[in-house]
Amino acid sequence: MLSFESDYIEGAHPKILEKLVSTNMEQLSGYGSDKYCESAKQRIKTACACPDADVWFITGGTQTNQIVIDSVLAPYEGVVAAFTGHVAAHEAGAIEYTGHKVLTIPAHNGKMNAEELDKYIETFYADGNHEHMVFPGMAYISFPTEYGTLYSKKELEDIHNVCQKYKIPLFIDGARLGYGLESSECDITLPELAKFCEVFYIGGTKVGALCGEAVVFTKKNTPKHFLNLIKKHGALLAKGRLLGIQFDTLFTDNLYFEISRHAIKMAEKLKKGFAERGYKFFLDSPTNQQFIVLDNSQMEKIGKSVRFGFWEKYDETHTVVRFATSWATTEQAINTLFDLL
Questions:
Q1: Which of 90, 93, 120 is nearest to 104 (CA)?
Q2: Alpha carbons 317 and 328: distance in angstroms, whole number
Q3: DSSP output for 219-250
Q4: Distances from the Cα of 231 to the Cαs of 46, 63, 196, in angstroms?
Q5: CA atoms of 144 and 321, how far apart (whole Å)
Q6: pLDDT class for 314, splitting at 50, 70, 90?
Q7: Using one digit for the tens of pLDDT, what is the confidence trace for 203-259?
Q8: What are residue 323's DSSP bridge partners?
Q9: Total-model pTM
Q10: Contact status, residue 292 vs residue 272, Cβ threshold 8 Å
Q11: What is the dihedral of CA 82, 84, 180, 20, to 10 degrees?
């Protein structure tokens, strides 16, 4: 069965597996205090041009979103996100489970608008009853968005300026960060992204690692006792080396960016092939996720040979489906897909 179902259907990049095997018998201290975690942190700080950053490794994306949001917010605060944002739509209520509400505003092809964020917060404080409401204590966006779209440098700067105006942090979910940065339509660098937020994370699970995400607090602004909070949320690995070795490998010799670039190259080939065959796109995505509108009968027929992701219902007879490429996608797989189509 051919699969374009997601970008984490393969295991890990061979260089990571080689490093895990070669270091397997080393005796290392636990909970992220080993030499590989420290090396990975330094490499990430260098890549971000952010020497004052604090870097932490957490097991997965849901845990990362939950822990960062829960640790930064006060008990009376919630997080503002586009209604299509991952924490609002696809986290199974993990944020609300901590006692913090996700406060949603409109989305535009998956993106939050700075003016609408400003208006939302302004309206909140103008409400005479706002003490009876959930305070907007953080803004959340993802890069790329759930729809594979990208914020421009200007859009990121505008959103961050709104956050600065109301003295709340901007949190950027970078589960697919590499695929965003390596898109031909991206006009922002990793150091610039780090400049326009208080905290973000670099996704490993979807970009070459077996598991794990690297959280970067950009301004020495890690919440107090963050290690304790990671453990309290059940996301602290005793064998922290597993995450450190993976990110140390990913950030050696630009591997993270090279494999991300490959995924984008494969996505562009996929996109071109669908267009040449007359398929309808739900929207224009410049990253590794491509959204196609299929007739339901056509979807059922293709689904007998190819796995893809259900995204949303388009109308009574059509469905939006997602084809995703990754660091491991091959040209042969794409050619085979087009032969089947």
A1: 120
A2: 33
A3: TS-PPTTHHHHHHHTT---TTTHHHHHHHHHH
A4: 27, 11, 28
A5: 18
A6: very high
A7: 999 999 999 999 999 999 999 999 999 999 999 999 999 999 999 999 999 999 999
A8: 290
A9: 0.97
A10: no
A11: 110
